[in-house]
Amino acid sequence: MNATTIDLKKNIMWLASYPKSGNTWFRMFLANYLKNDEEPVSLDEIESTPIASSPVDFEETMGFNPFEMGLDEVDLYRPDMYKIITQDTEDENEVFYKKIHDAYTLNTNNIPIFPAEVSIGAVYFVRNPLDVCVSYANHSSSNIKRKVKLILNEKGDVAGRKTGQLRQIMLSWKSHYDSWKSQTEIPVHIVRYEDMKQTPMETFGAIIKFLKLDYDKERLGRAIVNSDFKLLQQMEAETGFKEKAQFCENFFWKGTIGNYKEHLSEKQIERIVTYSKETMIELGYIDSKGKLTV
Amino acid sequence: MNTHTHTHTHTHMNLNFPIDIDTLAVSKEPIAKLLNPRLSNPHLQIDENDFYLNVYDVASYRVQNGNNVLIQPHENSDEASIRLFLNGSVLGAVLHQRGLIPFHGSTFLYEGKGVMICGQSGAGKSSTTAAFCQKEAAFINDDITPIKITKDAATIIPIRTRIKLWDDSLEKLDIENTKFDQIRPTLEKFYLPNDAAFQEEQELHHIIILGKHNEGEYKSNELEGMAKFNTLRKQIYRKMYLKGMPEREKTYFKQLFNLANKVRITKVIRPQKSSIYDTKEYIKTILAS
Q1: End-of-domain residue from the set B78, B98, B118
Q2: Residues B123, B111: one domain?
């Protein structure tokens, strides 16, 4: 395959995460920071950081209906899609922020789905898998049992059905994290959801620096306040949110830490912890004595 | 149809093309790419009257002057897949080269009026059209509809297509799948047999732009003025080809402008999860208004 004919610019910043790990919350923060307004931006303005697995973008860029292709077949074209879609700008300084839930994987031609040639970097959001599980179960109106299975499934994926987004290979929760952390093609800045909650100024501030945006403390504080979780909940109640599923009550649900205790059984907790132990220790969700920290 | 097929690797290939063309040939040798095309992607190259498409593991295609199609099947590819891309992306190239604007829409004749349902892939064009054509309407085209536009009229050009439906849509429409042809061996999507004779050219009266949202209600609004023109542009099938065909695109402006003046255009947003028949009934009330 010869891609020399595309004039490549390095202009994509990936916002990568397993679902329900603060990605959308961060996108609202970023929309506020970039706009730098006194008033909070509306939920609609999150469209400036769209998901990278849009079937419409795929069809309009590649000239194929992705729903008439196999899932692996679509992935053969995705690297080129990102090369093409982001080169269509006159502005040398434009950065495309793209939300993704995919693990970092290769397609069946052994080409990375996310091409390093056009990637500035990736911010990777990670959250305690126990809280992810509970939040995710609400998000898609399905039950917790299925989400426990998904979190442990090395072949886990989402979407890729007859309508909706393109298929996204996620692997298990721990392998999702490992895939992004261990790849060496794209510089990654890893962010814990819990730190976004507990030390927002430091955590969001570090991301702003990684993104090489102008760092301004006052602007940072304002963007944090204007993307506060309670505010997002309130805005969703008033105007609705496009990224919510039809039969799911709300997208912005609780956003708390340690909420799993009220919803997961001992056995479910044990299954996730046993399977994901090393990664959970690495991220501080389990201490050196093997006890859950939250 | 004046079709010459030279079959080598794929013998006895049944490559019906939806419109009449001068040549439709199969090549054993790799098809040459374009030299310095205006649009050049790894799998797709486009100039005003020349087009090259490589569908990995399926086939390469070249289209010239709106009348000559050359196909090189790739090793181990299946005929259904070769035909699917031929009747989709490749047909789109032929129509663009001819200057006959292809729209991403399905068409039928309902109560004496030509109706086109446009929308993105997955919006529900085919299933809604199938629901209409079960009793009340006469089917014309599925998925791709060329429209001939003059100062005086907008005309639907019938082409030889069949409605493509997923297994669950067939079930919802209570259509028994009696070994319908699969669009590809790996997909549970089928061609609905079309026994009726293909329609004559019909005047186009009303375009429905079908979309969906995560709310539970149907919504609609009829477009006026420039909004009609801008929306029509977005409904062009394989609009991205025009990046390699700027002269062709220029000729479309006036046509789209005329079309906007000739037809009614209504946007309809349906709930993501909704019944095909509810959508049909909702659209009926709009067509009657």
Answers
A1: B98
A2: yes
